[in-house]
Each structure stands twice: as C-alpha cells, then as structure tokens.
Design a protein that fits this description.
Domain HTH tetR-type: 28-65
Structural class: mainly alpha
GO molecular function: DNA-binding transcription factor activity; transcription cis-regulatory region binding
Pfam families: TetR_N
CATH class of the largest domain: Mainly Alpha
Region (Disordered): 1-22
Number of helices: 9
Organism: Gordonia westfalica
CATH architecture of the largest domain: Orthogonal Bundle
Oligomer: single chain
Amino acid sequence: MPDRPVEPQPAQETVPARGPRLGADDWLDAAVEVLLEDGIGGLKISRLSSRLGVTKGSFYWHFTDIATMKSELAAHCRKVQTAAAAQIAALENLPPAERIEGMARLVSDPRRWRMEGAMRRWAETDGSIADSVSELDGQIFQIADQAMRELGFDEAEAHARATTLLYAGIGFVHAHGRLGEATPDDLRIFLDILTRK
C-alpha cells in the first residue's frame, strides 16, 4: 500500500515556550515587533505581557514604567540607524555610479522597509528618533551629492539629483506595501535617469 500524504493541520496561535524568567532583551524584542506592527502607539504593557505569555508584574522586574521601556527601545532603534549609517559609509570608496547604485539597493532592501517606516512614523512624535532619522538622511544626501559631482554635474544639478534620490527612497519606504516592490529594471531605469547627463 503506497504511503499517503499527511494532511496539513491548520496553524494554531501559541505562546512561544520560554524559560521561567525573561530578560530585558526579551521584552525589547517583543517591543520591536509591536513597533513594526502598530507603531509606538501600540506599545502597551498588557500587549507585551500577552505576547510573551507572562503577567504584567514580570514587566516591572526590568522597567520602571512604559516610558522607561520606550527610552530603551529608542536607544536600540538608534543603534539600528547607526548600523545603517555604517553600511552607507562603506559605499564611499566605490566609484560614483556604483555608490549611487549601492544606496538604491540598500533603500530598496525589503528587510529595511518595516523598520525604516516605523522609525519615520515614530520620529513624528519623538525628537531623539527624529534627530537619528535626520542624521541618516543627511549622510545619504551628502554621499549622493558628492557622487553626482564626481559624475560631472554642477552644484545645482548635483543637489537636485541627490535630493531626488533621497526623497525617492523615503517615498519607497512609505509606499512599498501599497504599490508593490520595485523591480531590478525599475531601479536600473531610475538610476539611469538620475545619472544621465
């Protein structure tokens, strides 16, 4: 008798098995997930406790209150922005066209979309996050502007093209879920338009 395929069972929501005591990092990991799903407004002790399968009292072993947790979450998110800045800075030694292409690839990376979008929404209500986002935007602009000058554009044209690249990246982060993913051809054509003399 031939083996019969096993019918797939419907997925069930389960609370992940954890050790008896959670650490602050467990709470921060859960907070990042809530931030990505619903923004900073969705961050509530009851929601985090439910997600982690523990009582609210467990939260207070690690944080004085939700404001303290948000402060630590902000520090964590600024580290994410710093890591992104380091990736962009690593492109500075590439030839100008490759530098611009590398920045476009970073911006269009699906792994960055959710975090970048969440950070930008949070920046609307938190000055320290806004400063971090602005710093990264400034770095992207400076590298793009310098690359455009090296490609032979005058100051005004280099500025306009670097600004367009930056704003296109910000728009891409906010619109990707509604408009779909940019294809490699989309990026190639966009970069050709920006760098063509």
